[in-house]
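hey so u asked for the seq, here:
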Amino acid sequence: MKQSVKLIAGNWKMNGLAVNLGEAEALKQALEADPAACRVVLCPPATLIERMARLLGGGAVELGAQDCHASPSGAFTGSTSAGMLTDAGARLVILGHSERRAGFGETDADVAAKAETAVAAGLEPIICVGETLAQREAGEAVAVVSRQIAGSLPDSLAGRPFAVAYEPVWAIGTGRTPTLEEIEVVHRAIRLAIRARLGEAGDIAPILYGGSVKPDNAAEILAIPEVGGALVGGASLKAVDFLGIIRGV
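ran it, structure tokens below
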């Protein structure tokens, strides 16, 4: 089965001011001097996207965003449309992150609607799925992520570039990670769920792992079958830490 190149995406979440752009510049310089064996993406807060786009210049580091509204425009004070993100320089967008699902009540249908709008605006979605600790302990991890895949991927993704990110909610920012075997089981289930949803179009999309990915565990996680990259939180804020993960590919 043909697989796409691995994708390592850094999610800065609600962190980052102008002073922190130096980390993005350091990452760019390091990868220009010694190119990565994977795609590298930074997803800063919306306030930094345009400035980071100018700094990165479309080179070794791609630029993404962290969310978009499901409508292309309208009376949605405080929201950001997919077209606005594209206009600012973003080329990818994270959708359905567990922090959005839990903190803002986003449903699978909401995520699918956002993905539809993102694709229409020319953005490459990274659609997140993952189970809570209670669901994991109840043996429901595979059922939960399969259901999320079925409900969160719109038909329009067929034939378009996109990724899925598996982030067990209980592992995000906690320092805890599933075993390598547990990661492999869920990633294989996600691949089957993507195929069931989109047919052959689901064979190429990378499936990223996220949840306390660090330089010291990245290589072994990235070597697992069906792990097509990583979605990295806190460790992406510092160029040296993020590079340690990137070099694990």
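The beta strands are 7-11, 39-43, 62-65, 92-95, 124-129, 163-166, 207-210, 229-232. The first helix runs from residue 21 to 33.
lmk if thats what u needed
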